[in-house]
Amino acid sequence: MTHAHPTVHASAVLVGAKAVLIRGPSGAGKSRLCFDLIQAAAQGSIPFARLVADDRALLEACHGRLLVRPAPSLAGLIEVRGLGIRVSKFEPVGVVDLVVDLAAADAARLPTQQSGIVELCGIRLARLPVAADADALPAILARLSTTDGTARPDD
Questions:
Q1: Each residue of 46-77: b (16+ CB within 10 Å) or e?
Q2: Kind and range of the H or E element at 95?
Q3: Domain boundaries in the chain?
Q4: How far apart are the first and last CA of the chain?
Q5: Mean pLDDT of the region 40-66
Q6: Secondary element (H or E) of residue 130
C-alpha cells in the first residue's frame, strides 16, 4: 500500500546523479536557481541537470537516503519570472545530495562547519546557506567542481 507524503515548499534539480534541494521563502529565487542550473548544463558548465520539482516537493527517507519527487499536480512545471508557468522535461525522483537554503540568516563568507549540515527526515545532508543578496549559482558550481580546502592532504 502506498501512502501520500506531505509536500514541502521547495524545488529540486537533478545535477548529475544527485539532486539539489532548494529551499527558501517565497520570492527568494528557487525557480530561478532551478532554471539557472538547467541552463548551466545546456551551456556545458555541468554535465547534466534536469528539473525534479518546482515550488512543492515530496520528501521521503528511504534506506538512509533522502528521495525527492515532484508534487503530482506540478510535475514538469516550472515558473519562469516574466513568462509564467512553463512545461519542462523532468525526472520523477532524485536522491538529495545537497540542500541549498536561499535567503539564509546564517549565510557567511566563511561558513561554520555546523551551518554546512542539515538533517531532513532523519537523514544528514550537506547544506549551503546563501545570503538574500547573493547569487547561489557560482557557489553551487564551485561545490560541484572543487573539494573542501580545509581537508587537503599534506603535500
A1: beebbbbbbbbbbbeeeeeebbbbbbeebbeb
A2: strand 94-102
A3: 7-143
A4: 55
A5: 95
A6: strand 123-130
Which among 6, 1, 2, 4 has a CA at the least distance from the CA of 120? Answer: 6
Element at 140 (helix H, strand E): helix 136-145
Helices (H) and strands (E) counted in the chain, each on its own, are: 2, 10
For the chain, percent of residues with pLDDT exceeding 70: 92
Q: How confident is the model at residue 144 (pLDDT cuts 50, 70, 90)?
A: confident
- Written as one letter, the residue type at 106 is D
CATH numeric code, 7-143: 3.40.50.300
CA pair distance 143, 155, nearest whole angstrom: 22
Q: What is the pLDDT of residues 100-114, one digit of tens each?
A: 999 998 887 777 677
- Rounded to two decimals, the pTM is 0.89
Cβ atoms 24, 64 nearer than 8 A: no
